[in-house]
UniProtKB/TrEMBL annotation:
<feature type="transmembrane region" description="Helical">
    <location>
        <begin position="12"/>
        <end position="29"/>
    </location>
</feature>
<keyword id="KW-1003">Cell membrane</keyword>
<feature type="transmembrane region" description="Helical">
    <location>
        <begin position="102"/>
        <end position="124"/>
    </location>
</feature>
<keyword id="KW-0812">Transmembrane</keyword>
<dbReference type="InterPro" id="IPR006008">
    <property type="entry name" value="YciB"/>
</dbReference>
<feature type="transmembrane region" description="Helical">
    <location>
        <begin position="41"/>
        <end position="65"/>
    </location>
</feature>
<comment type="function">
    <text>Plays a role in cell envelope biogenesis, maintenance of cell envelope integrity and membrane homeostasis.</text>
</comment>
<protein>
    <recommendedName>
        <fullName>Inner membrane-spanning protein YciB</fullName>
    </recommendedName>
</protein>
<keyword id="KW-1133">Transmembrane helix</keyword>
<feature type="transmembrane region" description="Helical">
    <location>
        <begin position="144"/>
        <end position="161"/>
    </location>
</feature>
<keyword id="KW-0472">Membrane</keyword>
<feature type="transmembrane region" description="Helical">
    <location>
        <begin position="173"/>
        <end position="190"/>
    </location>
</feature>
<keyword id="KW-0997">Cell inner membrane</keyword>
<comment type="similarity">
    <text>Belongs to the YciB family.</text>
</comment>
<dbReference type="Pfam" id="PF04279">
    <property type="entry name" value="IspA"/>
</dbReference>
<feature type="transmembrane region" description="Helical">
    <location>
        <begin position="71"/>
        <end position="90"/>
    </location>
</feature>
Amino acid sequence: MAERSIPGWLKTTLELGPVALFFLAYLWLKDGRYAVFGTEYGGFIIVTALFVPLILASTATLWALTGKLSVMQVMTAVLVTVFGGLSVWLNDERFFKMKPTLIYALFAGVMFVGLWRGRSLLSMVLSEALPLDDAGWLILTRRMAWFFVALAVANEGIWRLMSTDAWVNFKTFGLPVAMIGFFIAQAGLFKEHERKDEA
């Protein structure tokens, strides 16, 4: 399928909308207990069961409109389905809470493997958005790999040691803010290693 462009607001809505709806549904249903086919579920499990088809639908819509999905979008959809499905099937919210840890650990591992081979795999994903020279890509990839390690450790600590409310707030607000903060902190790197032909 040929790649097509869509308005930025629509792309953002499809990417972030499911997370926002997860948060709102959790606030609404979190304190209830719900019987489904004779089994009682907490609000978090019900919201997770609703989130899985929602993320799949938004991902499929994004692919249908643009003809392209990033590796992270595909991995997120797969892991949400697997770990969300396990949480619902086993009535155990811990599986869904582990998902961000696995996503960040996998991407950190992929980046470290690329660095070990002397390549920036990150440049294959972001080269159109960030015109950096080769040295800049290696530095950014190293920093981002360690950043993902830190996010994985933070997610593990929060879901294991804190309340579900704290984890939902961290996932909904903390992770995006941390990601934005990381890229803002790289402003000096972007300026120093901007590719000359794109300056």
